[in-house]
Amino acid sequence: MPKEKESLYTRKYRVAWESDAELKGWIGPVLADETKSLCKICKCTLAAHKKDLLLHGKSKKHQEAEKRSLAGPSKKITEFMKKDSKYSLIIDESTAVDSTKMLCVMIKYFSKKQTKIVTTFYKLIEIEKGDAITISAAVTKQLELDGLKLGNLIGIGVDGANVMVGAHNSVASFLKAKNNELVIIKCVCHSLHLAAEYAFKLLPRHLDFIIKECHNWFSCSTKRQIAYKQIFETLTDQKPLKIDQLSGTRWLARYNAIVKILEQWDALKIHFGIVKDNERCYMAEQLFQMLSDQTNVLYFTFLSWTLKEIIRVNKLFQSECADPLKLMEDLNLLLFNNLSILVPPMRLQKISKNNVVDFKFEDYIMDIELINLGYSFNSKASSLAIKQDELLMVRTRCKDFLVELCRQIQMRIPESMNILEKINSFNPELATSKIRQPEITNIALSFSTICPDLDSTIAEWKSLPRINWINLPDTEKFWVEVANNVDAAGEPRYKNISSLALALLSLPFSNASVERAFSIINVVKNKLRNRLAIHSTDAIMRVRWYLCNLKNGCTDFQPTENMLQYFNSERMYDCKKEEEEVLNAFSEL
């Protein structure tokens, strides 16, 4: 406060604050009320009388708060990982129910305490805008506050949005300018969704209409559900399946709806036929006519067969327990299997399964009569009374779907495949092979911050086959065993190569974890709790995440004495230390 604006009363006590040794440093003025003073440590307002101030300074509340302030900030996330550990981030931006923009950040790293790769909730950050500058600045600032070095960030998982991975002025480009070895990985799951969506555009538009409207027809009407249930139970003696709602962002969610519509095709056709006659409903008439068209049965049969394998691979990338070294093989097989439908076997045999991304398959596509669209499709086609020209049209459009699907996969995921190929070199069987051990010099050179001593790294790699390792089938356990292997002096024998391998295993290939976090956030901060602050939501998220990941669940969990000491009235309602106390309590988990 400028001295010329102070009243005599305020100036009198300001002099006392500045000169008194017991008050100096933690008492300040309250600008709105000159009869009050502020305790900077406890963040509370007091009467501006020296006696009251001295009594407050001797209180238990103030003394404990002063000890915490002298102890400095907590290590936060570094309580769970070493400060020099390599880590990856998985980030995504969304808008809360109250239109507040927020950035959810997950962290993936090798935990020396748990001896495994861990993916966990890191931070929920409120941001003003969803542009690249704001997001990258928020991430960088949070890492600095938590003592995490940006140079130790080896990978960042994002969706395919331009603001995240654009060539210029994106989050990826800003962070890569500060760390040129940073690996930017677009979510493979998002890429598969988009590949299937673009391929689906080559099929008739009314197929999507059937999928959407069959769900909408029953979603808000109990009367329609009961009427259809009676028809279905009469025909099959079973209860009908609820048709899934479509997702605006996850296109492959249509698969479940496609399968259920196909299984209930005849019952749905009868239901809409009755409704169109009794209620003169135009929507029911349209759906009845589409379900009566037998070519649509073939389209749905083809989609249920084709999308099934894409769904399987998509789930592998979403899984937290999938072996990352085998993901490349599954991704290659997905593309290879679809190409085997279109390309002659003799031509495809000349192509390595690891090189299918660069294969120009469109020059070798077979004639439509030679393309096999699956047993179910052929069986349906022979049993249904469909004209030959209509059948040829269906087969042609299904072929176009497969061509576009393969083209989209080749276009969208080559970078992810290249990274997966690098990681695949660290397969335990290859790493310990005396004959087929791959060369990793180029990989080590591209990650010089992880293994600065290249000669030692290569020497350690070449000496791996000389030892009989125990955990060969399990990739993660194998490299943990390598990291724990020590020499006669108790020093790590394979420090460099194990650090490189475990760091690469910490790279994220899916945004599934951050999507799951947003699902929990939408439950925590909902329409009834729309005024919940982002800071409070972040604290609730952290508690929920840790409790949900307890080994034996939270029902049998017994808190330690140290945990109980943190949960008292003075600490629980101290907003300044709220997050620190929660983190300290759960650091014992």
UniProtKB/TrEMBL annotation:
GO terms for molecular function: protein dimerization activity. This is HAT C-terminal dimerisation domain-containing protein. Coiled coil: none annotated. The lineage of its organism: Eukaryota, Metazoa, Ecdysozoa, Arthropoda, Hexapoda. Residues 491-543 form the HAT C-terminal dimerisation domain. SUPFAM superfamilies: Ribonuclease H-like.
